[in-house]
Amino acid sequence: MRVETIIDLAKQNQVELPEKDPEKLRKILEVGHNCKSLTDYLRPFDMTCSVLQTKAALERATYELAEDCAEENIRYLEIRFSPILHVEKGLSLSKVVEAVLDGKSRAEKDFDITIGIIICGLRHLSPETTNILAELCVAYKNYGVVGFDLAGAEKNFPAKDHKEAFYLIINNNINTTVHAGEAYGPESIHQALHHVRANRIGHGTRLKEDGDLLNYVNDHRIPLEMCITSNLQTKAIESYSRHPIRFYFDMGLRVTINTDNRLISKTTLTDEYMLAIKEFNFSPKEIKYLITNGFKSAFLPLNQKVKLLRRISQELKEKGLEIHKDYI
């Protein structure tokens, strides 16, 4: 979210903020590298969610996020959120999703961007709540919702507790991604893959601790959604030099680069690619593969993915970074 929008929405909806000055509020919301843990990282979300309790606010936030991403030349965007966090002022879960879908639809018309919505279950909430969110995801499968996620603190909140919700999702042929192996060990990734059948893994920084599982992920071309800045802030890694992205890439894993949260992490996708170049010496050719990995891992029908990849291939070719046709 834009800080200015948070302040504006708070004023419109009589929400109390700790600061009304944009720069002072920004410093509160951006966790920086003094963040102590994933739990610490998640705290500012209470503030952002407090102003996202009306249809107008949700539609506006979705639209503005898409606009900011389009300005970076992002062609495909997946927005994940948990509708259960936006019902404090009486909105129904369906109205929450429809508001986000309205923002998505308006943004796709106005900007050169394709958007998919991912509904998130939250590990610390009850499995019954995750079931309700899964039912919501099924209802909106063909209306812009492209996947289901399980997010939140990993420790003491195992993915297998939510397997009934994922059973519904899988039976309805819906894409799945799970935050795993970020704040907990590779057994969390194992559960994500084998108990709830994740098609992608969010973060996966600790996958390297289990060579057998790493090879399984590689052999099955399971994408890893890596967020370099966020991983350092949540203490999933001790320093950039300890981040496994280069090791995973060299091993042939399908690594993708992501922002996690643009505001809280004070980052953009451009910043994350620049970190990959600066901290891990990714060459232009390797950056090309990271970009195409993102498109190949998108929760889109194959024919749409192929069209996007061909378009991106042409754009990269014009900049001297041609993609081999076998990679599309």
From TrEMBL:
Query: Record's family?
Result: Belongs to the metallo-dependent hydrolases superfamily. Adenosine and AMP deaminases family.
The residue ranges of the Adenosine deaminase domain are 2-313
Under which main EC class is this enzyme filed? hydrolase
A GO BP entry is: inosine biosynthetic process
Q: In the record, which residues are listed under signal peptide? A: none
Named from the GO MF annotations, one term is: metal ion binding
Q: SUPFAM superfamilies, per this entry?
A: Metallo-dependent hydrolases (SSF51556)
| Keyword Hydrolase listed | yes
Q: Which cofactor does it need?
A: Zn(2+)
**The entry's keywords:** Hydrolase, Metal-binding, Zinc
A Pfam family the protein falls into = A_deaminase
Question: Under which name does UniProt file this protein?
Answer: adenosine deaminase
Q: Which superkingdom does the taxonomy of this entry point to? A: Bacteria
State if Zinc is listed as a keyword: yes
Query: Recorded E.C. number(s)?
Result: 3.5.4.4
